[in-house]
Amino acid sequence: MGIAPALSDEVSGINFYSPAKGVFIIDIDTLLCNKCIDIYFSDALETVENVVEKTNALAGINGGFFDPNNKKTISYIYKNNRYIGNPWLNESLINNNVLKKYLDKIFNRAEFRILNCSNTYKYSINYHSEQTKQSCTLVSSIQAGPILLDKMDLEKEFFVLKKGNKIIRSSAGVLKQYARSAIAIKGDNILLIAVSNEKPMTIKELSALLKQMDVDSAMALDGGSSTSMYIKNIKFILNSAKDAAARKVKSIILIRNE
To answer: How far is CA 171 from CA 92, 155, 167, in A?
Structure first.
């Protein structure tokens, strides 16, 4: 396992390493950096690198799903006591005759939640419809999916559609090997995972990798050409787009100074 320097000399509890070729992990110890994780949502589309630089964050990874044609979100994004990203406002999605009957599954996909529990931040991965514990309030959340661990159900989140035992439709390239990104919870640590084009994976292969790492729960983020990770002080850039330019995305998970 190759260990790189901490992301910032000013912040303890944040490290970056590569456990295997093409796999890169930002590891945040939330006991030492409890409020370091933030959600960014763009009015248009922006690269992870540009957002990290302009917000003076330490690092970032791509987040939820979006439509590159109309630049609107396909994922719920919650922050500042409201949904700043609402897929119901994406007319291309809700008016799609093929998808209309499955919108309840699409809108209930997994989300990563930041919770305030007695002034301490806690983190969870839930389906969108799941209630937040009464002792905690929702600070922010970002939806993507599918859930990778502890139990993956691609049909429940409409990443596959079956007729009998045969898969007749799949979404987000889940059955093919692509670059991938994910977020995981392991004890008190949050892991941001990026898998580059050097080691493309199916969703099931990504799930198996995280299971080997003994994470407690995990969900995929938008993958394929959207997969991108940027770490400011060591100038690490992972860009999975096939062309020279990094793909612009709609939402980003940032690591900031508390």
So the answer is: 16, 10, 11
Task: Please list, in sequence order, all residues whose beta carbon lies within 8 angstroms of the beta carbon of residue 37, skipping any fewer than 6 positions away.
Answer: 28, 30, 114, 121, 123, 190, 253, 254, 255, 256
Main-chain phi, psi angles of 211, to 5 degrees: -65, -40
Sign of the dihedral defined by the CA atoms of residues 199, 200, 203, 204, in that order: negative
- Beta-carbon contacts of residue 98 (< 8 Å; ≥ 6 apart): none
pLDDT at 3: 47
Distance CA 142, CA 11 (A): 24
CB contact at 8 A, 107 and 76: yes
Query: Angle at CA 230, nearest 5°, toward 35 and 22?
Result: 115
Q: Which residues of 83-118 are buried (b: 16+ CB within 10 A; e: fewer)?
A: bbbebeebeebeeeeeeeeeeebbbbbbbbbbbeee
Question: Per the structure block, which two tokens stand in for 38?
Answer: 């933030």
pLDDT along the chain (258 residues), means of 10: 54 89 96 95 95 96 96 97 96 95 97 95 96 90 96 96 92 95 98 96 97 97 95 90 80 92
Look at residue 2 in the predicted model and tell me its pLDDT.
46
- Between the CA of residue 162 and those of 129, 137, 142, 150, 254, what are the distances in Å? 23, 37, 27, 22, 36
34 token code pair? 């409890």
